Each structure stands twice: as structure tokens, then as C-alpha cells.
Amino acid sequence: MSRLPIVFFGHGSPMVALEKSPVTRTWNQIASSIGKPRAILCISAHWQTRGTAVTAMAQPRTIHDFGAFPQALFDVQYPAPGDPELAERVRELLSPMPVNLDANWGLDHGTWSVLVHAYPEADVPVIQLGMDLGKSAAEHWLVGRMLRPLRDEGVLIMGTGNIVHNLPAMDWANPAADPYPWAEQFNAAMCKAIASDDPQTVIDYAALGDAARLSVPSSDHFLPLLYVLGARHEDEAATFEPDFIQHKSLSMTSVRIGAA
Question: 151, 230 in Cβ contact below 8 A?
Fold first, then answer.
């Protein structure tokens, strides 16, 4: 079995689940180039936990974890099976770290809004890993490093979030407006560090000062990237597609690392 790549998807608004766009077509192309994995482990911006947790149910529910959106979005279901055995494998890899086998969460929109385009048949088992709020950026990266063996076991490790995610600053009326200079600076700095396999710069993202503070006002959408970078092997190339900022302060940049 060949080693699977790893992917960070810049997922944007939940409405992306209903769209047919260059972004969603690119997500589908990424998945097609990878092929059908044995299972998927997703780290979503939308599941933060006290302690580390992994979904361990046989049939995870589709969670509509958002508010004022059209009914069509609430009607979306992503009935992929879970994988309790993979959840146990995750717990084994992260030992001696305590890992809760969760039976309540499911698949949140950070996961299914991407997968409805990437793997629309919903026939690949999917589990989610919760991001422990008590961990530092370096510790999140280390968890990704501990999960790296899964890539050789047919499991696609993916993170979903946004490198730049500042909702209050967004220009909702102008998705194609030029990005704020600070957003462009931060997105470019992170992509440069990823391209040169410099994870420490990404871990220390706050060192970029105001650009980091404005681009990452809260860490939830940024942290999934660290798990993906943690699972990287040396000398693996990174590609960035799509790679743009919409609404001036929402990065849709996705990162694929490694060959299929």
C-alpha cells in the first residue's frame, strides 16, 4: 500500500456545501488524484474538546452546527460510516495520552461541507479527531506527528479550516475584493513556510504580530493545519490549490502534501 498524501482544505462558509464552483471542483480533483482511501481521519475547526477525543461510533450523524442559513443546507446529509477500529488505532498511536472514544459528536460541517464534494458517494468511513483546547500550538503539531503512521495504513489525514479567518472584518458584499494587506501578508508567510518545510514558523505564527493577530483572532480554524504539517515526512513537496483570499479576510487556500 502506497503512502497517502495529507491535505488541509480551506473550507470557508458552510454554504460551500451547496455550491458548484472552481473551489469545489478542485476539491473533487484532489480527491480523485488521491483515490479512495480505506478511511478518513479529519481534524475540523469546529470540534474543540477538553482533552483529546475521537469519534468512535459506527454511524456518525451529520451535524448542522450553524445558525441562519437556508433550509437546503440543513437538509444536507453525509451518511458516511464511522470506523470504531480506526478510532481504537488512533488511541493506540497517541498513547499514553488519554483519548476519549466519543459516541456523541458525529461529522460537523467543517468535515462534511468538504467531503460532499471530495467524496460525494459518502462510502469512505470517516472519523473526527477533537482538538484539545488545553494544548499549545506545538503540541497540536506533535499529535499530527504521532498520527503519521496512518498514512501508510490507507488512512487519509485531512484538516479543514482557514489560514486567514477573520469574520468581523469580512466584506460580505464583495467576495472578489482585494484582500487586506495583513491577510495577504500572513497567508503568504504561512504558504512560504509550508513550501520550505519550515513547520516551526507555522507553529510560531503569533510572532508575525499584527498580521497574525488579525488573521487568526481565534485559533480554531488555524490549528487543523498544524496536525497536517505534523503528519508530513521530510522532502515531501507541498502544492497550493486553490490559493486565494475571498471577502478580504477569508483564505480559501488548500494545501496538499505528498504524492498519491
Answer: no
CATH of the domain at 229: 3.40.830.10
Residues facing 126 on adjacent strands = 40
Find the domain containing 240 and state its range. 6-257
In the block, cell 475540523 appears at: 44
DSSP assignment of 180-239: PHHHHHHHHHHHHHHHTT-HHHHHTGGGGTHHHHHH-SSSTTTHHHHHHHHTPPTT--EE
pLDDT tens string 70-93: 999 999 999 999 999 999 999 999
Can you tell me which residue has the cell 480559501?
252
Whether the predicted model's global pTM rises above the 0.85 cut: yes
Q: Can you read off the three cell numbers belonging to residue 55?
A: 469519534
- Domains held by the chain: number: 1
